[in-house]
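Consider the following input, taken from an annotated entry for DUF3224 domain-containing protein (Alteromonas naphthalenivorans).
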Amino acid sequence: MDCNGQFSITGWDENILSEKREGVKQTHASITQAYEGSMAGQSDVEFLMSYQTSMLALFVGFESFVGVIDGRRGTVSFKHDGKFVNGIASSNFSSIDGSATGELSNCTISGTFESAEGGKANYTINLTE
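Applying the prediction step yields:
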């Protein structure tokens, strides 16, 4: 079943781990998000990012979600593989086997997001049991 909605970034703390020259750097970002739509709840995200320029970066990370997905209450952790290109962030993500709890414990979840304006992003997920 495909589910859609939007999340808002409610906190962002990014620190430089190493910098080679202007714009080329590796960073760590701790992010908090609030979800609405088919996913309703909050999450904490940890991203490692590799910037090639100020407008191009690749990122990987893990997200811990707490809330409701398609009417099922629980928690789940996602693994992200994303990119930031010309001001737009996007990612493919999937649930980590064995990480889901509660009514989500028998579900496999995968999805995508793409950033929108004002610190928001649109997501689509697929939930299977």
